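ERR on first pass: missing label on line 2. Operator R.T. fixed the label and resubmitted. Corrected input:
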Amino acid sequence: MSALHPADARGAASAADEAPALYRYVLRLGDLALVLGQRLSEWVGHAPALEEDLGLANIALDLVGQARLLLAYAGEIEGRGRGEDDIAFLRTHGEYLNPTLVEQPNGDFGETIVRQVLIDAFQLALYERLASSRDERLAAIAEKAVKETRYHLRYSSSWLVRLGDGTAESHARVQQALERLWPYTVELFEADALDRDMAESGIAPSLEEMRGPWNRHIDEVLAEATLDRPAERPYTWFGKRGEHSEHLGYLLAEMQYLQRAHPGARW
Amino acid sequence: MSAAAARVVPGTEDEARVQAAWRALAAVPDPELPALTLADLGIVRFVNVRADGVLDVGLSPTYTGCPATDHIAELARRALESAAVGEFAVRHVLAPAWTSDWITPEGRRKLDAYGIVPPAPAAVSSWRASLAGLPVACPRCRSARTETISEFGSTPCKALHRCRDCLEPFERFKCI
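pass 2 clean. output:
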């Protein structure tokens, strides 16, 4: 780990490395849902049309709901009495284990849709397989979440087709967004020791097994949207190990402000 | 879940408690759709008697992020208290996951009368289904010339449509 993160200086990230593997794995899933849900909620009141405002807000709501189930479970595995709120609001960015893609800024509506297609297809491939996990709790959460995710993917994919196969302007913008966000997808399928450990113990699907279905859906939508699949580039981010882009800190600062300023506040 | 429950013997006090609990829960209106009860929506998963005599009540959340989920559990607790069914515990059950297919025929009739189109069977559909848009009849004038405005609506369980004949917007229960 680099020593650049304030969390490392306080030893928080290294402590997280020693936490039980299942706890860290569940955090990866929960943080993905929470950070993406928080990002999407930034559209509330700002989307191009009321209908899309409702759509993005509803997807955000589903994601925050999934995050609550996952983070509450993470707290139980950790066994230190922390609940979903403690875990969401009182960890620093070095302790967040979401993939770097989901913390990327919303950009314009097209860029948000591109990010959403890439991650919806990933979550669908994940939840479909996680529903038969050896871990009953994760299986139950996945069985619930898979229905919502299928709905999200339908929304994001059909919008990508309309924008990609739309006007010259909309096509150019989503193609550009695709080029910008593509490098972040490498991380989704780059298995590290934790991913392999979880797959070997029958808790998580192997990332390799998820890559095929993800590729098929992405290629199908890109073709229909008349968009070009970007070339693979070797650079890999590692948000899922706590090494994030600069954007996550700002997102957490906004999301966590109230609990940091008024610890334990409720309404 | 049900495997851990003691068998309820007909004609016993336990059976009377279970029936009273079902009756009480069946009468609880949904906070977002007051025309329908929890039973109509298929949210009440089971009422069992545990070995220690506590009534074990399972509710299925409709959507993971639905803000009404906790409120519904609270309403269920109050109804069970009023019904004096003895000691009970209300919990959420994720698996099997709730589906709009569990809305009862009575629930569908009430939705339609309330002006919300009941859900079609929630078959696993391709991502293209939204573009094709299955025909949905307008709940006011029954015209089949309708269009989808948004696959999402004012609550997590509904989508927005519009009738091209009477021009009225209307809601439809999401098929999930």
